[in-house]
Specification:
- By secondary structure, the protein is mostly helical.
- It has 10 helices and no strands.
Length: about 260
């Protein structure tokens, strides 16, 4: 007897359609575009934005800040996380600092950054400070998850440092790093847009969202929100593909 198994992609698409269906019903009940525009009005505004030159300037500025902030958190997190994962003293030193950064409210970081830095730098700093604890904690856990028996074995056979890292630590680190990158990217866009709204740089999606709020352009605000959501989904799917591809290749090689 053949059992029907639904395609997960179709199920995910159905969930998205339900969201837009609920949005359409709510907009129809309220019938006040100033409060809640319809999905059609928001998408028309998205198409209007796409043909303007400034749209790509704002999108590029936001993407650039996001990648710089996230890249810094990943790079510094890798360095500190690897040392902290291997050394208990280093871990004990950085642990309270990580907890402190993880517990600090996002708005506090952004407001303080507004006092300390130029407005273009505020989103980068806020993104780095909010994503860094997530990255470093996942890297520490990944390093510490290495099998102790394997560690003893490489000590006995006197395996060199680089070979030990690539063959022993990297396989254990990859799943934790993948989770950290996935969660970190999601938080990146949320913190970045919030920081842009408050710091109001010349170019940036957050700047445009706040401008739309001031002039009560609700459809434009929804349009920019859809752009940010689409941007996050693209990064999420690309990351998911890049992370799954090596494992698929490895499985195919094993079967061959």
């Amino acid at each position: 007897m053949k059992i029907f198994m639904p395609n997960h992609k179709w199920v995910g698409g159905l969930a998205v359609l339900c969201v837009f269906w609920g949005w359409q019903i709510a907009a129809g009940l309220i019938q006040l575009p100033l409060i809640l525009p319809t999905p059609k009005q928001a998408f028309v505004q998205v198409l209007t934005l796409l043909v303007t030159k400034d749209f790509w300037h704002h999108l590029g500025a936001t993407l650039g800040r996001g990648m710089v902030g996230f890249g810094l958190s990943l790079s510094v997190g890798m360095i500190i996380g690897i040392f902290a994962g291997q050394n208990a003293t280093v871990n004990a030193f950085f642990r309270p600092l990580i907890i402190l950064m993880r517990s600090t409210p996002v708005m506090s970081v952004i407001i303080l950054a507004l006092i300390w830095f130029k407005r273009e730098t505020v989103p980068v700093f806020a993104t780095f400070l909010m994503v860094f604890p997530i990255m470093v904690q996942n890297i520490i856990e990944g390093i510490r998850s290495v099998d102790q028996d394997l560690l003893e074995m490489v000590e006995v056979f006197r395996v060199t440092g680089w070979l030990r890292f690539t063959r022993l630590y990297v396989p254990s680190l990859l799943p934790f790093l993948a989770v950290g990158i996935s969660v970190g990217l999601g938080i990146t866009w949320k913190v970045l847009i919030a920081a842009e709204v408050l710091s109001y740089p010349r170019w940036g999606i957050g700047t445009q969202m706040d401008t739309a709020r001031v002039y009560l352009q609700t459809d434009k605000l929804f349009a920019w929100t859809l752009v940010v959501v689409a941007m996050g989904l693209v990064f999420d799917y690309v990351l998911d593909y890049l992370l799954k591809k090596p494992f698929k290749t490895r499985k195919e090689a094993v079967h061959d």
